[in-house]
Amino acid sequence: MQELSLKYGCNPNQKPARVFMNDGGELPIKVLNGRPGYINLLDALNAWQLVSELKEATGNVAATSFKHVSPAGAAIGSPLTDIEKKIYWAEDMGDLSPLASAYVRARGADRMSSFGDFIALSDTCDKDTARFIQREVSDGIIAPGYEKEALDILKSKKKGNYCILEIDPEYTPAPIEHKQVFGITFEQGRNDYRIDRSVLSNIVTVKKELPEQACLDLMLALIVLKYTQSNSVAYAKGGQAIGIGAGQQSRIHCTRLAGNKADNWFLRQCPKVLSLPFLDDVRRPDRDNAIDCYIGENSDDVLRDGAWQRVFKTRPDALSPDEKAVWLSHNTGVSLGSDAFFPFSDNIDRAVKSGVSYIAEPGGSVRDADVISSCDDYGLVMCFTGMRLFHH
């Protein structure tokens, strides 16, 4: 297939729309089911690059959940803990394959943002992964292959219209890429910067110890940032992104946004949240919405009379600010990546509040010394990668 016609571009008024190879060659993707849209393909192709690079860097199968050309979550295939199975709505799934676990974790870190996502898998989609995807709200998937049973399961989604793409894993794009804005063609070298353990070798803080898990998490955070709309910051722990802040004009706003998401991820594990008395017939997306309100600043939206009866069997007590603070103080060992340097130490102050112990950023600010000093005051480990990761 050399060309694929699309229904429309980013919006219904943007016609005609298509994707094709400028050199007249074959597209590296096949449409196995459904009909992809313009944004679906932008998500799919960025997401595939992320998971393929994440697998190469860590040696583990990987998955990502994409929305509007940025990842909502990404993870490698570590086994799910009992608490993760509960907060990711996977308790009834039994033992899952590493690839299925990777997607459950990728989607689960920020289920609000992952609603209606486009999925990318580093490896052939198996039955376990397809079974979990089948029951979630998702627009489509891209993978290098599909087991027959998995493909049959996925084809049953969305009344048979679920978008399923297969990509050639051997495809290598041209070293020069182009895009048009306002009728003007832009040209640049493709960002083929390789992220591996070597980018973490320049540790600039007094504290130098970087455990293996922190190395994995920092590489994951940096690879996530490579395919996240800038400015961007990512928090990671245990082989998954737990908070991603994308597309903010201010670095501190990225750090706050991603930190708030990381806090929400950890608050979902609080015993008081785990024991919320949901009605039996409340759907998973509605439970996600209710939990997000309950742990947020507007808990009355779900706890007031007339509201709580729609989701809970009995009215739960509110989660107080003090209870939140005590619970969040237990979240430690978090890794943080930034796609550009931190210009002020206020980013470090905010990161520490979400349990950050390890940081990777390019360095190069006139205030690097202040930022390093702040890390030393908190006893953090920070690496300067020397490479900015802007993505637009």
Main sheet attributes: strand count, strand direction, barrel closure: 6 strands, mixed
* DSSP summary, beta strand count: 15
Query: In the CATH hierarchy, what is the architecture of the largest domain at level 2?
Result: 3-Layer(aba) Sandwich
As a percent range, the share of helical residues equals 25-40%
| CATH homologous superfamily classification of the largest domain | AICAR transformylase, duplication domain
Low-confidence residue ranges: none
End-to-end CA span: 28 Å
Strand order of the largest sheet: 3-8-7-6-4-5
Strand content: 15-25%
**Protein structure class:** alpha/beta
Write down the secondary-structure element order: EEEHEEHHHEHEHEEEHEEHHHHHEHEHE
Q: Kindly identify the CATH topology of the largest domain.
A: Cytidine Deaminase, domain 2
* Number of structurally distinct domains: 3
Report on the architecture of this protein.
This protein has 392 residues and is of the alpha/beta class. It has three domains: 170 residues, Cytidine Deaminase, domain 2, CATH 3.40.140; 148 residues, 3-Layer(aba) Sandwich (Cytidine Deaminase, domain 2), CATH 3.40.140.20; 48 residues, no CATH class. Helices cover 35% and strands 21% of the residues. The strands form four sheets. A six-stranded mixed beta sheet has the order 3-8-7-6-4-5. β7, α6 and β8 form a beta-alpha-beta unit. α3 packs parallel to α5 and α8 runs parallel beside α13.
